[in-house]
Specification:
With about 450 residues, the protein is an alpha+beta fold. The chain has three helices and eight strands; from the N terminus they run ββββββββααα.
Length: about 450
């Protein structure tokens, strides 16, 4: 097979200048695991650096590894995982969660995120057909939670490739047949992904020139990766800004409504305060009138009590006059005096009846005044409750205004960050152009 130089392993060139890869990378076996392999494919495994979030780290120093989709358990409760091993040690064990997305970032490179571990894995394939087959099975499992029988490919037995270390005992696997239309070539990741394997050369002299140009090429790929990450962050910031703008419009509409409600509440509060003052004046007048009616009622009761002895005296005098008439006094004079006394008695009775009616009227007015006073007190309590509610509402309005001012500050900060990000992207574009000119 032709000799292929691996630019990702330049640090090992002194000890092992060249890595020999078989053109057919499908003969690698997986060690036995707890799951059952339902699909296998050869690819270069990578993982995004968790600290920098900008560089891809190869997970295997040997290049391509066998990537398997395994099923653990039977029935609806079974789970699927993406696994890969190097020298018997697991380098990828990622369960395919419901709703997971496999992104094709280039014709021969794809990536997905493991929600359980927070890792971002990438696979570089030799041909586009392998990427399509893997992506189709990954998406099917993510959407339906199972893999149809038509998409299950049972690997066949194959001998493990020669290696310096003692390979682990593995169960036979069936390799997946390569598409006949295109021969397998080294994977070519996108600009945002780790560098791909260069095209095979016919002679070892080409590897020397590749070694001399690997340093600027790696720098260009690192800058491209940083540029792509900055573009991705810019897109995320733009989306967040659009969502924030939409929320800001909603908050402004709500603030406008709340301000209108606050204005109406203030007007109602002022009107209620004026009504309360009027009710307090009217309540004071009713209390004064009630006090006067009570005093008048007491006076009438005293007058009615003082007229009772006079009536008794008049009756005694009438009896005395009657006795005198019987004794032979002048009938005419007695009759005149008797009529006068009767008229006086009638007048006194009328006065007593009039005083009684006045006393009843005053008592009725006193009761009505008490009822009005109770109503006024209840109305005053209701007004106090409304005033307290309005005050709380005004405090909420002040809090909403404070939140609005904070949002304005956050929006200004977002604008400043966007400008800084645009400046950095412009700098990276200039650097990318300069490096491209230098490489040319």
């Amino acid at each position: 097979p032709p000799v292929v130089e691996c630019p990702l392993c330049r640090s090992l060139l002194q000890k092992k200048p060249y890595h020999r890869f078989d053109n057919d990378l499908r003969s690698t076996n997986l060690p036995s695991t707890m799951g059952k392999a339902v699909f296998t494919v050869n690819a270069h495994p990578f993982e995004l650096d968790r600290q920098t979030k900008k560089q891809w780290t190869p997970l295997s120093s040997a290049g391509a590894e066998t990537i398997a989709i395994e099923r653990e358990g039977d029935g609806p409760s079974g789970t699927y995982s993406v696994t890969a091993y190097h020298d018997g040690q697991p380098i990828i064990q990622s369960q395919i969660a419901q709703g997971a997305i496999f992104n094709k970032t280039s014709p021969k490179f794809g990536q997905w995120s493991d929600a359980a571990t927070g890792s971002l894995y990438g696979l570089g394939f030799a041909v586009e057909a392998d990427l399509s087959e893997f992506s189709k099975r990954f998406s099917t499992i993510s959407e339906t939670g199972t893999l149809p029988q038509s998409l299950i490919t049972v690997p066949q037995a194959a001998a493990p490739p020669p290696t310096a270390s003692k390979p682990p005992k593995v169960e036979p696997k069936q390799p997946v047949a390569a598409p006949p239309s295109a021969p397998p070539t080294a994977p070519k990741p996108p600009k945002t992904q780790p560098p791909a394997q260069p095209e095979p050369q016919a002679a070892t002299s080409a590897s020397t020139s590749a070694t001399s140009t690997s340093a600027p090429a790696s720098a260009t790929q690192v800058n491209d990766s940083e540029h792509a990450n900055l573009l991705y962050e810019n897109q995320m910031l733009k989306k967040a800004l659009e969502v924030t703008k939409g929320n800001a419009e909603k908050w402004q509409e709500e603030l406008r409504k709340e301000r209108n409600v606050n204005t109406r509440l203030k007007t109602a509060l002022q009107e209620s305060a004026r009504n309360i003052d009027q009710w307090k004046v009217q309540l004071k007048a009713w209390k004064d009138e009630c006090t006067k009616l009570r005093s008048r009622s007491k006076e009438l009761e005293e007058q009615a009590g003082s007229s009772a002895p006079q009536l008794q005296e008049l009756q005694q005098e009438v009896e005395t006059l009657r006795a005198q008439v019987k004794d032979g006094a002048s009938a005419a004079a007695l009759e005149t005096e008797l009529a006068a006394e009767r008229a006086t008695v009638a007048q006194l009775k009328e006065d007593v009846a009039r005083l009684q009616r006045e006393a009843d009227l005053h008592t009725t007015q006193l009761r009505e005044t008490k009822m009005k006073q109770e109503q006024a007190e209840a109305l005053a309590k209701d007004c106090d409750v409304k005033i307290q509610a309005m005050q709380r509402r005004m405090q909420e309005m002040e809090t909403a205004a404070t939140y609005q001012s904070r949002y304005e500050q956050v929006r200004e900060d977002m604008t400043a960050w966007k400008l800084q990000l645009a400046a950095k992207i412009a700098e990276m574009d200039d650097l990318h152009t300069a490096l491209g000119d230098l490489l040319q």
